[in-house]
Amino acid sequence: MQVSFFLCNFAAQNACKHTKHLEMNTIGSKWRFTSFGESHGKAIGGVLDGVPAGLVINYGLIRAALDRRAGRNQKGKMGVSARAAGEEDEVEWLSGVMERDQGTKDQEQRELVSLGTPIAFLIRNKNCRSEDYEYLKHHYRPGHADRVYEIKYGIRDWRGGGRASARETAGRVVAGSIAKQALLEKGIGIHAELIQVGTETDPALFEGYIRAIQAEGDSTGGIVQCTITGVPAGTGEPIFDKLQAHLAFAMMSINGCKGFDYGSGFGGIGEKGSTANQDSGGISGGIADGGPIVFRCVFKPTASTPKAGVKGRHDACIAVRAVEVVEAMAALCLTGMGLTK
Amino acid sequence: MQVSFFLCNFAAQNACKHTKHLEMNTIGSKWRFTSFGESHGKAIGGVLDGVPAGLVINYGLIRAALDRRAGRNQKGKMGVSARAAGEEDEVEWLSGVMERDQGTKDQEQRELVSLGTPIAFLIRNKNCRSEDYEYLKHHYRPGHADRVYEIKYGIRDWRGGGRASARETAGRVVAGSIAKQALLEKGIGIHAELIQVGTETDPALFEGYIRAIQAEGDSTGGIVQCTITGVPAGTGEPIFDKLQAHLAFAMMSINGCKGFDYGSGFGGIGEKGSTANQDSGGISGGIADGGPIVFRCVFKPTASTPKAGVKGRHDACIAVRAVEVVEAMAALCLTGMGLTK
Amino acid sequence: MQVSFFLCNFAAQNACKHTKHLEMNTIGSKWRFTSFGESHGKAIGGVLDGVPAGLVINYGLIRAALDRRAGRNQKGKMGVSARAAGEEDEVEWLSGVMERDQGTKDQEQRELVSLGTPIAFLIRNKNCRSEDYEYLKHHYRPGHADRVYEIKYGIRDWRGGGRASARETAGRVVAGSIAKQALLEKGIGIHAELIQVGTETDPALFEGYIRAIQAEGDSTGGIVQCTITGVPAGTGEPIFDKLQAHLAFAMMSINGCKGFDYGSGFGGIGEKGSTANQDSGGISGGIADGGPIVFRCVFKPTASTPKAGVKGRHDACIAVRAVEVVEAMAALCLTGMGLTK
Amino acid sequence: MQVSFFLCNFAAQNACKHTKHLEMNTIGSKWRFTSFGESHGKAIGGVLDGVPAGLVINYGLIRAALDRRAGRNQKGKMGVSARAAGEEDEVEWLSGVMERDQGTKDQEQRELVSLGTPIAFLIRNKNCRSEDYEYLKHHYRPGHADRVYEIKYGIRDWRGGGRASARETAGRVVAGSIAKQALLEKGIGIHAELIQVGTETDPALFEGYIRAIQAEGDSTGGIVQCTITGVPAGTGEPIFDKLQAHLAFAMMSINGCKGFDYGSGFGGIGEKGSTANQDSGGISGGIADGGPIVFRCVFKPTASTPKAGVKGRHDACIAVRAVEVVEAMAALCLTGMGLTK
Lengths: 341, 341, 341, 341
What we know:
The structure is a homotetramer of 341-residue chains.
Chain A: H1 12-15, E1 26-27, E2 32-36, E3 43-49, E4 56-58, H2 59-69, E5 91-95, E6 97-99, E7 111-114, E8 119-124, H3 130-134, H4 146-153, H5 169-185, E9 189-197, H6 206-215, E10 222-229, H7 243-252, E11 257-262, E12 283-284, E13 287-288, E14 293-299, H8 318-336
């Protein structure tokens, strides 16, 4: 590993005084996911604790989720966000699972069985085009977290944004896919999709819209809507641990997400109580009512575009790849609350 | 205390199987607030743990906050939501504080000093007009949590919505006022205000708008905007414990709140990355950047209106009284994250 | 309330820098008990969160547990530790329960039904003989926490030790009795007893031993053994959340407890692996094996005795009254781990 | 990786109903250590979260601690517990640290600098002599957790005890060494040592005692005493989060530990309050008093000895190697409570 780094200031530990550690890099209560890894360090990965023994995990589904997150295998449709093929994310399983059938060589057919112990995994970082990032070494990127990281840690790992990089979400997607598979066994389905790109709300026109923005070297925001079916009525708590509060927490932890609403949301502001359809969004008083849970997340247009003079690979619409992350975080939110028990 | 209750089903404990207890009625990490009390039981109250010894607490400020939450003392302006004067919320301090000066009789001048031990307090419930609620005993209210509560607990405490009642927020306001006072000592200010009522965005017209809705026996939604100044750059965590995630969690725990956004939020969806003002809302990559933090919460129009045939006292615009609760929860969020350390 | 207090130092908040708040005054995960109240403040009490709806609570059992903790109603046997009759602990229920039958006036027959919401209660402090404590105002008591409290909080509430007082355990006993009743419904029984007083191991001789010590104005230590039956095999976690670790945590939180062991414990040190009976104490690898769980706690002789020149009421053997607290904390430990689910 | 496994029962997930997940494989609040890995799976390791940026970590100290845990490099003294040289534990750093100086090749001189992000590391499992363990596949070992694991998880990973293996403690020792280094910077020193082996209390005679036991194919228990200096007075909380409660929790999480005491402990049972030295053990009322903190842990004689007919490598006295684990857990306990802040 190439190991130069930019140590801004040896008052690092003093600068750290504002660091209010809470759960930090861990999310969830019954299932707990801990994320680790810098984007251009040795590896990114995670530990998923709380998975019961005997869960059969389809590795092909995990790979497919990683491909969607990376903008691959989108049948060309969303190729606008596709990354180079060489960046494939191979998951190395360190603990907590065993191969169910050694004979099968087909990656898509591989099945893992959970042992009931913490599932640790990593994805090695490779193919780092650090020359693109070299430029950033001495330049703050507009709208990025570079400056606050330096303030917070005293050390800014400038190579690709460090922890703030979207690459960190690959670990969430691996854990989230396991969570989705466990939830599906309980009859709980999660489906997210883009419902708006910029001002465009017709999905048939999304790809053209994004390609045009990309051609300009610019970027656009988008809204991802997620529908969860099969959550048992009674899930959630009435006061602080409201179901919508946990979902909002999980979504607002995704990079670039600037807002969350559910049911009638912000869009219902113009209606009166008597005529409003009172769209509960599947949650009433903090507790699931048994119907589909519907929420939305808005993602901002990224500021670090070619048009703004920032080199490196960038998405014209981060909401495209965020779809997979929204599903993953929704799944980790629900398993974290104990839905697989 | 009147003690009849509606025990729906003696399979209560079985019905409870979906109860996924997490922190339940507690919020915060460094300061922890635990809320208790049914709206028409003996008392509501709370325990605020983590307050350092020696904090001087102005009781007058707590009373003023309670009055605003109750729609009292609004100088007539927001009288549209005012409750009867007899419902005054007298706080009884059980532990954790001592009176600083016994001589002063003026409630507004009273000062308490924290002992460093848990601050427990209660507000007794009185003046219950249970006849209004008697009607509800056998009727689910539209858009209310009555049905999910019965599913969840097997017992529906029909008298005023039990825990789901807005009355529970009085405890949050007491704790939140203490938190605001502690934060102000550290130079952190919190200010929330109504910025939209229904389709109206001119504050000068809000009162008229609400009175008209109320005259119709109807209700309207509203948007509360909150600005926090003085949060040190570096506050927050980059991955899951993002500052905006904690704020969203705290806000989505308020009854009737259907959405949260910050900075450019949902409103910024139409802008391109190159031209967007990239309004960070004071948070970058999950971490405060030192500027004012600005977020918004949307509150739905309540469904249980006279027009919908529901008796009892109801607000034409719950967002009016929510202003105080938004401030309280923002304060508890920040002290919960350790901002007073 | 008499409100003078001893504010050592107005650098109180600075002195607080060593305050490492964790869960602080709360214990447990699935059931969470939060304790509040200073020994000679207005009241002590607590909030017990996580109790499912529909649990029938026998108030007579709670009263009996409080009596044992206070050294009352011991059929004369352990009267050596008895407190004055005037100090009876009347529990005032603030929330979370409703009386099952109003007609019955007999305290011992009263039944409460849980609502699934937080159970808050208080016991008012009365009959404070503050003249005994006045002496302590300017004297540190040997072996007491007075000095560290002053260092920690900057404020020393000298009246009876503040939070450090044994009185705080009354709240634990109320919550613990509810927990014991819920566990018993699941077939889990908890029984603690004195097995050693000073060097005496014959229970028939304990009372005489203690009376002799008391007559000398002195004090002695004791060992409490607790047996838990009916814990399902498989309870506990193999690494950090070992069952014995949680039990040890709960026991070491009791004032005066200087050690914890289980199974073969410290006493098995002289045996070899081949001949040792390998007394598992009901726990293997951190997990219950289905047999009775047996552990012990040692309580020190209190240092603040008449012989040492310290006035006020003191126990010759705090282990006598600790028996009830050991049972309460064992019950809260198990409900905290989710045993009633 | 060899991947056969023993799937006892496909009712695995049902068997799991007693699994009461709490923090599970994570310990600590301000610094959080998550452990992963089965003893004879691919790797064991951990994630240490909360370490501030800029901490300089001496890798040589970590290696030395791992050697002591493995019974290596004991200068012959404790060679009785030494493992084969081929079992060296090479740490692979995945994230959270960077090499300070690439030039130096000497392992002992290597220095790592923390980045403020989660430190993830692994130690690959190699040199597995699975033939020794093959025997165990169909035999429960006396005094081991094999049976409860099968009950709990439905899957018993028989190869070396899975998570229950002492090998899991290597991860604790790596994290604990980092914690010790951070604590030492704050002037806090931790030193553990054997003070009793079987009935022997003279350290000069320990090695001979153990060799004799080993020659018999038998095992003996031992007591480890740990002294912590430099903990600021005021550390700890007065009620549940007592310092001794956290230390007891950490120690009782070590395999084979059957008891914990501090200060006068169990040994002080025969003394009277007036004459007892009232050895506080450095903690008063749950809070550090500024003096040295002294506690002890008793370790049982392992039951799986050659004399009992159990093959495989076993220690005649697990307390020897536990010394290092006691230090590691003490350090993780203190950093977990926030002592490095």
